[in-house]
Amino acid sequence: RLEEFLKKELDLELSTLPDFEERVIDFSEVEQLMNSINTIPAPCAPVINPQAPNAATGTSMRVCWGLFSDDTVECYQLCYKPVSNERRSEEQAEHTLKVKETYCTITNLLPNTQYEFWVSALNASGISPPSERAVYVTAPSPPIIKNKKIRSCENAALVCWESRDINPVDSYMVEL
């Protein structure tokens, strides 16, 4: 019987009643309900803080910011890049980190180098405009004392050193 059934040509056309063929569905109620739902707006731009004293070492930096509104925020997007007059592509690359808190410690930075930071807030509705950009600077590397050039006498000493930093250092403090 199965063999006979499979040999038959079947008419799969469904017949519908005339009432359903030209029916127009009205979605106005659904549209009104959808529009009445309160959606969360995208957050406002965060405000990045200026660099705090002692917030940097030669290779790391702590960056802080705030959100001065009652916006719902799921996370923040912190972006940074080194500030340079030269156009080296790998050194000019922008880095992006996702952060849950309103602060972040960035590591693996170059000593005595300026970095530009900006931050955006994210939630389910989207991303905020970026904050103003802030420039932070890492601490310089400690200098290398040239032991072979040290000279001293009864009332004086001559100590020579050289900087390991690419960028010039403003000043040195010598402690005895």
Automatic annotation (TrEMBL):
SUPFAM superfamilies xref list: Fibronectin type III
PROSITE patterns named among the record's database cross-references: FN3
Record-linked Gene3D superfamilies: Immunoglobulins
Domain Fibronectin type-III: 46-142
Protein name: FSD2 protein
Record organism: Ciconia maguari
